[in-house]
Amino acid sequence: MNIGVDIKALYKGKAGIAAYIRNTLDKLQETDHANRYFLFEKRPSSYTTTNPRFQKILVPSRLPGTLWLMFILPFHLKKYSIGVFWGPEQLIPCVFGQAGVKMVSTILDLTLLHYPETMQTTNFLVNRLFLRRSVCKSDKILTISNFIKKDICESFPRGATSDNVVVTYPGSPEWEKTWVAAQGRGEHLLFVGSFEPRKNLSSLLKALCFLKDERNRAISLRIVGPPGWKNDAVHHFIKTNNLEGHVTFKGYCGETELAREYASCKAFVYPSLYEGFGLPVLEALAANTLVLSSGGTVMDEIAGGCFVSFDPANPRDIAEKILTVYQKDFDPTPYLKGAKDVLARYSWKSTAEKTMEVLMTV
Questions:
Q1: CB-side exposure of 340: number of CA atoms within 13 Å?
Q2: Strands 221-224 and 189-192, sheet pairing
């Protein structure tokens, strides 16, 4: 069978969606030697194919990515006799009907419905225009947690049911032991992710400000990840509250350096308001690093009891939980003893196998 895949996100992609696509395709290349895969991209990416049945197809266009997906790509699905198309980036071609082409989409989260104000304007508009239609046109929907599956089924009852929404968890990081061995723990906190509003760094910084001004405890924070968007107010907060000497922006890191960042911090703090999965939490656990994160979110499903829970909307609660970690008698062992079991539940091989199963089913 000929399977088409939208890989436009791999062009300079550094966010979680790019890692999800890249890792899933890598494992599909290792395991699937029966089907042919046509990987459609708008601009040439650095992604490499090692399986001769996987072929990158460049479909250049000056149109923005979503319009390319809707109005240009459908003609190429016909050209390459695509039987099943997988859209791993929330949307599928849903404007023109493609007779004979089955559609599988991956929905990572529904930020559009819950936190639209945190989205980039362009991303908000295209999801507003096409997400509901994409859901209705999908023969199967993949998603990355039961938390989001429930959200999809409740939000789109006409297009999504428990039967046609399938959970395919992302995998744990596959890191070399030498990357995280004997790094030596510092006293700083670590945050990893795009610097954007949904990650709720404003509440974390308010917590640090509270500790500095009212508890006389100055704690440093290192931020690792892409620069993000809509963060001018946070930068202003850092400057006006004299946090500049306590907050360091590392930028994007490759896997080896990232693993070492996790292994060298006091604890990893992830105050996100809403996530589909929360891969950085698994990355931290893979480095045997204590995690502090948002309770009442998908983190409860993914990490179980392997993290210190706080209320992400309450900076004082975040501050108190951070302060607990720095107490001399604090023992992280209860939060880390189940980490191996948590990590064992998630593998990219399993992600690929479940994805291929769904593609075959439709």
A1: 2
A2: parallel
Burial 87-124 (b: 16+ CB within 10 A, else e): bbbbbbbbeeebeebbbbbbbbbbbbbeeeebbeeeee
Domains of the chain in sequence order: 2-171+347-361 (3.40.50.2000), 177-344 (3.40.50.2000)
- Would you write out the chain's pLDDT as a tens digit for each of its 362 residues? 999 999 999 998 777 899 999 999 999 999 999 999 999 999 999 999 999 999 999 999 999 999 999 999 999 999 999 999 999 999 999 987 666 899 999 999 999 999 999 999 999 999 999 999 999 999 999 999 999 999 999 999 988 999 999 999 999 998 887 777 766 889 999 999 988 999 999 999 999 999 999 999 999 999 999 888 998 999 999 999 989 999 999 988 888 999 999 999 999 999 999 999 999 999 999 999 999 999 999 999 999 899 999 999 999 999 999 999 999 999 999 999 999 999 999 999 999 999 999 999 99
Name the residue with tokens 């399986």: 51
Predicted TM-score of the model (pTM) = 0.93
Alpha helices in the chain (DSSP H): 16-31, 65-67, 73-79, 111-114, 121-137, 146-155, 177-180, 201-214, 232-240, 255-263, 279-286, 299-303, 315-325, 333-336, 339-344, 348-361
Tokens found for residue 357:
């199963």
